UniProtKB/TrEMBL annotation, chain A:
The lineage of its organism: Eukaryota, Metazoa, Chordata, Craniata, Vertebrata. The keyword Iron-sulfur does not apply. Keywords: Protease inhibitor, Repeat. This is LXN protein. Residues 1-87, 107-204 form the Cystatin LXN-type domain. GO terms for molecular function: metalloendopeptidase inhibitor activity. The keyword Ribonucleoprotein does not apply.
TrEMBL record, chain B:
Belongs to the peptidase M14 family. Residues 121-414 form the Peptidase M14 domain. GO terms for cellular component: extracellular space. The active site is at 380 (proton donor/acceptor). It is found in: Secreted. The keyword Hydrolase applies. GO terms for molecular function: metallocarboxypeptidase activity; zinc ion binding. Pfam families: Peptidase_M14 (PF00246), Propep_M14 (PF02244). Its cofactor is Zn(2+). Residues 1-16 form the signal peptide. GO terms for biological process: proteolysis. This is CBPA1 Carboxypeptidase.
Length: 204, 419
């Protein structure tokens, strides 16, 4: 289960954007290998769904290798999507142009709010955080942890001289096993043609 | 024109009134355009303070005119001298207003909170406690409210009892909100309480259950934590007790029970979200339930509701060994999650706590099970992480609705397997 969640988070990071977030719908474990001196490798079948369109799913096979002992190395994740993901160029461009045309840098808090509400204007920022958190989760996961993005506490746009969009996020991650809520900072950079990149991240 | 001048003097002394004592509403039917025009001109006499509730539009169609008491005589004189036919629709407007006010006040006391309580929103502690009283008032022969103790910060711990009589009947215990940040659970508890009350006498299963058993439902099992999630930190999980020698507050009430207490999956660090507490049942919120169930002596099922993960779990959490009736619990869970999925397709996994989610010592259902409660289950409601604890309020009713089917399956099984 944890390996599945990790693989999904990684896939989401690699393939997601403000108009596309992938979530894990189902895992079918296909086997676990214990590699002497290296670590534990899990073979999995996953079904990923588009969070904006629950009926749109894609199958995926993944391998997750948790390294023995060394807690500072992120697990190795390989995945293969079996199928096409919906094209989101149009929505991406609309969002990109909207943000570029803002006079004042965007600032927002508490997404979702206490009641789970996300306003439509904030949805792309929410998705972008979801996707970027996939990176943070991947980098910080072990066999004994399972992270989810719990909330965006604060997000601030940072205008750049180049064509990329940059957002500085303060997020809360929920770790399932310890049940801890962990505040985290991440700087997310995105461009419609260049995907999502987390350029800086640290826990508070 | 002359006629208008006549009654203008008549009502020279007219003054505005706050109340409507003696005011009338006249239903006027003009027979031609000329009469329509006369009515329009009449309405424009501001000193008369007339108010058309329905304006004169065309001949043959009624116009309704509110006439203040001081202007009555003049207006009637005008209508009669112009042969405009009318009848008195409302004899005394104030009387009607008073009557309406009475009805509304009565409705507010009894009806409002039942039929207008918004089950599709998240509510505060006070709103839920207040609603509980309304539920009891609305179903006095079925529902009563018991106080089983007080929280650390001295808030009342209330349990709703659903009973059709008898004495110390076999009972089912349900709790929601033991972890305060799991807001979907308290919201589901409220909806479910209402559902049970509504369905007794309507739904055959609910009726059969309540005809021989009692249901106890504690909706806000951790009121201090719940209040804190509203006032300060939406992500607060534990109780709010002070821990000696630490600046960190609170104990995880689902690690504080005396079954596998201190075992893996719980922490000895007061700052941890899974801090087990200084000893088993150290938390008043937990002790109150322990005492209640022990004194009752006839509780046959304990169902503890959490979120999130979409799972239906049963003992054990403190050990990987299977419970003696594992097979039976597994079958019950299988059917329950299957029925739950029929509503919206929501997929749940199921199994023992240790094998499905993680090892956890000191949990509610392990304690209940080790104290003879054969049918002990924990729900982890929606979702699987997309919104997590911040589940949108739009999902409250769908979640409660699908969960209801699973709850009913468990309760029916308990009814049909007395021990």
């Amino acid at each position: 289960n944890r390996a599945g969640a990790l693989a999904a988070a990684f896939a989401c990071y690699r393939r997601g954007g403000p108009s596309r977030g992938l979530a894990l719908r189902a895992v079918s474990p296909a086997g676990r290998e214990d590699i002497d001196g290296v670590g534990h490798k899990y073979h999995l079948g996953l079904v990923l769904e588009d969070v904006l369109d629950k009926d749109s799913t894609v199958n995926c096979t993944a391998e997750v290798l948790y390294h023995l002992g060394n807690k500072t190395t992120a697990p190795d994740v390989q995945f293969t999507l079996e199928g096409e993901l919906k094209n989101t160029d149009e929505a991406d461009n609309i969002f990109y142009n909207q943000i570029r045309s803002l006079e004042k840098e965007l600032v927002a808090e508490n997404i979702p709010d206490s009641h789970g509400n996300v306003s439509p204007e904030m949805e792309p920022l929410h998705l972008l955080a979801w996707v970027a958190s996939g990176y943070v989760i991947w980098q910080n996961s072990t066999e004994n942890t399972q992270f989810q993005l719990a909330q965006i506490k604060h997000v601030k746009q940072v205008k750049r001289r180049d064509e990329y969009l940059q957002f500085d996020y303060k997020i809360l991650l929920h770790e399932m096993v310890s049940q801890e809520i962990i505040p985290w900072h991440m700087t997310v950079v995105w461009h419609p043609q260049h995907g999502v990149e987390v350029t800086q991240n640290s826990c508070q | 024109m002359k006629i208008l001048l006549v009654f203008t003097t008549l009502v020279a002394a007219a003054h505005s009134v706050q109340l409507f004592v003696g005011d009338q509403v006249l239903r006027i039917v003009a027979k031609d355009e000329e009469q329509i025009n006369l009515l329009r001109v009449l309405g424009k006499q501001t000193e008369l303070q007339l108010d058309f509730w329905r304006h004169p539009s065309s001949p043959g169609h009624p116009a309704d005119l509110h006439v203040p008491f001081p202007s009555l005589q003049a207006v009637k004189l005008f209508l009669e001298s112009n042969s405009i036919s009318y009848s008195i629709m409302i004899e005394d407007v104030q009387a009607l207003v008073d009557e309406e006010k009475q009805t509304m006040m009565k409705a507010r006391r009894v009806e409002r909170s039942i039929s207008t309580f918004d089950f599709a929103s998240y509510h505060t502690l006070d709103e839920i406690y207040s609603w509980m009283d309304t539920l009891v008032a609305h179903h006095p022969s079925l529902v009563s409210k018991i106080q089983i103790g007080q929280s650390y910060e001295n808030r009342s711990l209330y349990v709703l009892k659903f009973s059709t009589g008898g004495w110390n009947r076999s009972a089912i215990w349900v709790d929601t909100g033991i972890h305060s940040r799991e807001w979907i659970t308290q919201a589901t508890g409220v909806w479910t309480a209402n559902k049970i009350a509504e369905e007794y006498g309507q739904d055959p299963s609910v009726t059969a259950i309540l005809d021989s058993m009692d249901i106890f439902l504690e909706i806000i099992t951790n009121p201090d934590g719940f209040a804190f999630t509203h006032s300060s930190n939406r992500m607060w999980r534990k109780t709010r007790s002070v821990n000696a020698g630490s600046t960190c507050l609170g104990v995880d009430p689902n690690r504080n029970w005396g079954a596998g207490f201190g075992g893996s999956g719980s922490s000895s660090n007061p700052c941890s979200e899974i801090y087990r507490g200084p000893h088993a049942h150290s938390e008043r919120e937990v002790k109150a339930i322990v005492d209640f169930i022990c004194r009752h002596g006839n509780v046959k099922s304990v169902i503890s509701i959490h979120s999130y993960s979409q799972m239906l779990l049963f003992p054990y959490g403190y050990k990987t060994a299977l419970a003696p009736n594992h097979q039976e619990l597994n079958e019950v869970a299988k059917k329950a999650v299957s029925d739950l999925a029929t509503v919206y397709g929501t997929k749940y996994t199921y199994g023992s706590v240790a094998n499905t989610i993680y090892m956890a010592g000191g949990t509610t259902i392990d304690w209940a099970y080790d104290h003879g409660v054969k049918y002990a289950f924990t729900f982890e409601l929606r979702d699987t992480g997309r919104y997590g604890f911040l589940l949108p309020s739009a999902q409250i009713i769908p979640t409660a609705t699908e969960t209801w089917l699973a709850l009913l399956d468990i309760m029916v099984h308990v009814l049909e397997h007395p021990y």
